[in-house]
Design a protein that fits this description.
Structural class: alpha+beta
CATH superfamily of one domain: YVTN repeat-like/Quinoprotein amine dehydrogenase
Number of strands: 29
Distance between the termini: 125 Å
Radius of gyration: 37 Å
CATH topology of one domain: Methylamine Dehydrogenase, Chain H
CATH class of one domain: Mainly Beta
Strand content: 25-35%
Largest sheet: 5 strands, mixed
CATH architecture of one domain: 7 Propeller
Helix content: 10-25%
Shape: flat
Amino acid sequence: MSAEELARLDSQPNPFNFSERVSQTQKAPRKDLGIQTEPPPSNTHSLNFGLSNIFDAYQKDYKKVLAKELEREREKEKEKERERKSGKQKSPRGPREPVVHIPPPPPKKTQGGDLSAIHETASMVERMVTQNIYDDITQDFQYWEDTSDDFRPMEGSLLPLWKFSCDNCRSYYVSDICWNPFYPDLFAASYSTDRDGSTDCGGMLSLFTLKNPGIPERLYRTPSGVNSAQFHPTKESVLVAGCSDGVVFVYDTRLVGCLKVLSSTTITGKHLLPVSQVRWIPTEPGQNLGFYSVGQDGRVSQWTVLPSSLQYTDILDFSGDTQGSNSSSNADKVKLEGTATCVAFSPKDKNILLVGVDTGAVFQVNASSTSYGIIRYPAHSCPVRAIAWNSYHHKIFATCSGDWTLKLWLQCHVAALVILDLGAPVAGLTWAPYSSSVVVAVSDEGRVHVYDLFLRKCRPLCVQNIMQRRRTSLACVAFNPVFPIIVVGGEKGYLISMKLSPNLRKPHKDAKGADEQKLREIELCKMDRIIATSSN
């Protein structure tokens, strides 16, 4: 190659290892320079500052302001005195002296200050954290629908949701559950130590909410077991409870520190044996609150809540002993055999009540006059454990007993309309608030039975064990008034909420788009059809 060609090639870019000059710039290595010197002198200052210091600071500032105002008043008085002595009075038309208003002293605060705002904030944050922890259960509570119900139209299932527990609850059993009528997420659970009442080592009364299932909102321990509790139907914060030592309490659940408001004593007529059940009496506005209590001593008593005490009147006496009761009520009482175990009021007439006894019979009594009009239903062969009126058809009620049966009755008819055999002693029952034909019962063997009597009376739509590994004896069940969930309680403090699948809460085909009056007529027609097709 000639010299010109070599020069031309050298002037061209290298096609093999050519690179721009910018990319060839080396990155300066980072250098660390350590300098060792003595640290500057420092001091640590700390001070504890609380609400009491703030209160003292405000008091000190208030004294300073008051002292300045008093000093200004003294200066003005001295100036007026000097003008009076010198004879130089101000013109009456001159500017008036401003009136100084000394602020009143601030209200005295208790030591520690007011922590109500902190308590509300902490409770809100606690609920947020708990809902984040149980987010999967919260999503199931809101959106879960069992898709398998589309392939089995006459069967359903129950989805376990939250489990509710408190400290040392495994030594108790849940004796009763009651939902609040105004707050659908709040319910009360009563705890007792022994189901038969042979031993009594104290009890508990807890208030739980679905918004914070981790811990109870209120937890109060009682000297004896609590066998029954119920919220007032119109006073959402008033709760009545009956205990194993025969005492009945009226509580105000708004109070955090002291829950007990009124209680019965030996002088005021407490029961001599454990109280089996308590139920509120519907009252008109302005009237004193009242409730009924059923005790194992044979008494069915009506209590009137006075401002500072409880006044009782014995309605029924199953023991045959009239001593120790009010003399005004002895003339109208009727002596009956057996011992009352449960009571239920007619939703149509508050004077009509049903009383279940340990002999298996159910008595219908008129509370206004118990000397006549008693109807005896030969219900069961074992003690009656629960009675519940239908929420739509006010002449239908259901009873359950330890003889393995759940029976449906029509008022004033001594023969049962429907008899259901659950295969185990039945502990409790409840009617669904959304349907007149759906009833839920629990058994001592730990099973939950859901029946829809309009669809099928021979077999339940759902039979589900609460626990798969071991049997847990159940004692009570309660239906939420708004949401399609139930809460079941039993031995060892077991308390769990469960959601019904779509087949167990399926509305009637004519209920779509109907108003409230039309829905009630549909539910009444369903019960009328059950009555017409019953064998009796």
